[in-house]
Amino acid sequence: MITLEEVTKVYVMGDVEVHALRGISLHVEAGEFVAVMGPSGSGKSTLMNIIGCLDTPTSGRYILDGHDVSHLDEDALARIRNKRIGFVFQTFNLLPRTPAVEQVELPLIYAGVPRGERRRRAMDMLARVGLADRARHHPTELSGGQQQRVAIARALVTHPAILLADEPTGNLDTQTGEEIMRLFRSLHEERGLTIIMVTHEPDIAAWAERIVHIRDGRIEREERR
Amino acid sequence: MITLEEVTKVYVMGDVEVHALRGISLHVEAGEFVAVMGPSGSGKSTLMNIIGCLDTPTSGRYILDGHDVSHLDEDALARIRNKRIGFVFQTFNLLPRTPAVEQVELPLIYAGVPRGERRRRAMDMLARVGLADRARHHPTELSGGQQQRVAIARALVTHPAILLADEPTGNLDTQTGEEIMRLFRSLHEERGLTIIMVTHEPDIAAWAERIVHIRDGRIEREERR
Ligand SMILES: Nc1ncnc2c1ncn2[C@@H]1O[C@H](COP(=O)(O)OP(=O)(O)OP(=O)(O)O)[C@@H](O)[C@H]1O
Ligand SMILES: Nc1ncnc2c1ncn2[C@@H]1O[C@H](COP(=O)(O)OP(=O)(O)OP(=O)(O)O)[C@@H](O)[C@H]1O
Ligand SMILES: [Mg+2]
Ligand SMILES: [Mg+2]
After folding, report:
1. Mapped to the 3 state alphabet, what secondary structure does chain A carry?
2. Parallel, antiparallel or unpaired: strands B2-13 and B59-64
């Protein structure tokens, strides 16, 4: 399903080059649940952005469902993202003056889902992350962990084939974090959802079947559970 | 140094009231290192905003260094903040198109520190959080944990009397998180820095001398170490 071959990513800032990814080769089967761990600045979010079709590699190949997507243009990447991928961003990326339920409806609008069903599905997913009573709140009226859970609900509402979650429990207490992991696990088991999740917490990584350790833009080692 | 007496905070949204704090009484001595833990949405950031003079209670009193600050206006609160308090926000609150070193210099500009000394102190604090080589990067050119560390450096650069840190390691791997905690501990021991830190990670809370557990806007229990 997901194959990266010697993927690199170089950021050029004037006369300075930042080598964020230095040759990543990775294969993730459909239906796998993979955790990604590594030091701050080691390239995890950069890797997630490439897998999620939000960015393209500097060199190397990315084959998604049998198609080479390494050099697609913005529109083609956007279409793949909207149909196949749900992304929970490390910094949430919610719309500033929009109620929680409308944040979660947004991907359904892009998918052409009718209004009544959109509202029903958005409210259902908000309930599943424990925020049924926060549907009308704007981001500034939500706690950090509540904003994070709105971002999670938004990523899941289209029933994507692949969930990419970048530190999804970074702002959640242990118990709420476990509720989210139980939600991920159940979607994984019920629907065969492929999950790639960045986390720095070993207790959260323990929910995955496989852990990929990143250091300095490379895969350092892997663990299978 | 910090005394809260029956502090409440009520948010009114049309005909709905959200009781974020339901009567908090808390005393923190100068030089104490306190951790605050509790479920998502339980009132931790609201409590921190009141202690940090970013917000005022709905009822109850807040006495800071012997002065009742519960009902000060914006300007008076801002003066206290700038002189006494360093705040690490749960969502960083960095300026969008500003290099890291200038983000850290900003509180020194308000404090009237001359240009050469500002640059030196900002670079020194960036080095202490491991980001000397990221000084020219803007927030979008930094990883999540690097943005978090810029926010930490900015909070510490004025040598505040009180550090308020809201989930300061939420985006940091275990090792980088420990480096930050060692920095906090050394400033606590060298300078008598008073620290109040929200965290959901027990390993991070273990660095404090005292843990306050919040639930539903109230203090549920405390632990001393
Ligand atoms: N401006 C606001 N208007 C209405 N409700 C608000 C507002 N700000 C916060 N709230 C609500 O107040 C409660 C407490 O919020 P707070 O941010 O203090 O929680 P928290 O303990 O920091 O949570 P987290 O661990 O998720 O960061 C939450 O339920 C939140 O929805
Ligand atoms: N647009 C950019 N321009 C220049 N450098 C960048 C840019 N984006 C990221 N970087 C650098 O690339 C490296 C990898 O960043 P990335 O966000 O992938 O790290 P990360 O592993 O997600 O870190 P964290 O755990 O702190 O979130 C970092 O050192 C960062 O400074
Ligand atoms: Mg990251
Ligand atoms: Mg909070």
Report:
1. CEEEEEEEEEEEECCEEEEEEEEEEEEECCCCEEEEECCCCCCHHHHHHHHCCCCCCCEEEEEECCEECCCCCHHHHHHHHHHHEEEECCCCCCCCCCCHHHHHHHHHHHCCCCHHHHHHHHHHHHHHCCCHHHCCCCHHHCCHHHHHHHHHHHHHCCCCCEEEEECCCCCCCHHHHHHHHHHHHHHHHHHCCEEEEECCCHHHHCCCCEEEEEECCEEEEEEEC
2. antiparallel
Chain B contact for A215 (CB, 8 A cutoff): no
CB contact under 8 A, B13 and A136: yes
Please, which pLDDT band fits residue B71 given cuts at 50, 70 and 90?
A: confident
Query: How close is the nearest chain A Cα to the Cα of B116, in Å?
Result: 25
For the packed helices A174-191 and A144-156, what is the interaxial angle rounded to 10 degrees? 0
CB contacts of A203 in chain B (<8 Å) are none
Put simply, the answer to whether A171 touches B200 (Cβ < 8 Å) is yes
Q: What is the pLDDT of residues B9-23, one digit of tens each?
A: 999 998 899 999 999
* Least Cα separation, residue A112 to chain B (angstroms): 31
Q: Is A143 on the interface with B (CB under 8 A)?
A: yes
- Asked if residue A103 lies in contact with residue A95, where contact means CB atoms within 8 angstroms, the answer is yes
Place of tokens 């306050």: B212
Percent of chain A past pLDDT 70, that is, above it, reads 100
DSSP string, B9-70: EEEEETTEEEEEEEEEEEEE-TT-EEEEE--TTSSHHHHHHHHTTSS--SEEEEEETTEE-T
> pLDDT tens digits, residue range A18-38?
999 999 999 999 999 999 999
Residue in chain B lying closest to A36 (CA): B173
What residue's CA is closest to ligand 1, atom 4?
A: A141
Give B22's contacts (C-beta < 8 A, 6+ positions apart).
B8, B43, B216, B217, B218
**Cβ-count burial of A1 within 10 angstroms (0-12 exposed, 13-18 middle, 19+ buried)?**
middle
Task: Tell me, using a 6 A CB cutoff, whether residue B176 lines ligand 1.
Answer: no
